[in-house]
Amino acid sequence: MGEIPEAIFNISSLEVIDFSFNKLSGRIPSTTGLHLPNLEELYLGENQLEGEIPLFITNASKLQILSLSQNFLTGTIPTNLGNLRELRHMFLHHNQLTNEPTERELRFFNSLADCRMLRYLQVGNNPLSGVLPNSIGNLSSTIENFIIANAHINGLIPTSIGNLSVLHP
Q: Tell me: the pLDDT tens digits for 86-122?
């Protein structure tokens, strides 16, 4: 049990932060001054973290792996994750993440279309409660693994999802 020290996110030379599979609690530090220009991998999954996904994460322009799965995170999935142009793996499954209350569509997918290297996208087991946007078909042509099971998706599945031609069963 314990919290993530804020100071760790001020070490600008860090390339990997891995606190997964612990019993960390509290929130992910969200001070606006945090700057991680060299961070490539952030693993905070399998803990007891709560609160929202901090927006500073989108400033880590070299981030390739974002793993926040199996926590108690709430709020929405940031709609500016497309700023992470190097992102290859994003694991947000098994949290309590929701859609914007005033939106029907899951708008975070629109920005993820800018992540041209994205291969693994797991957002299932969250009460997202929304409609898949047509932009879902604009996700990376390299996406191999897309899991959105048990996310309370409603509406029609856009035909553009057929553009995701390299998905693995």
A: 999 999 999 999 999 888 999 999 999 999 999 999 9
Beta pairing partners, 98: 76
**What is the Cα–Cα distance from 17 to 44, expressed in whole angstroms?**
8
What are the two backbone dihedrals, phi and then psi, of residue 135, each rounded to the nearest 5 degrees? -65, -10
CATH code of 31's domain? 3.80.10.10
Q: HSE on the CB side for 132, CA within 13 Å?
A: 22
Identify the three-state secondary structure at position 51.
strand
The verdict on residue 154 lying in a domain is yes
Question: Has this prediction a pTM greater than 0.85?
Answer: yes
Q: What is the number of structural domains in the chain? A: 1
Q: How many CA atoms lie within 13 A of 38 on its CB side?
A: 7
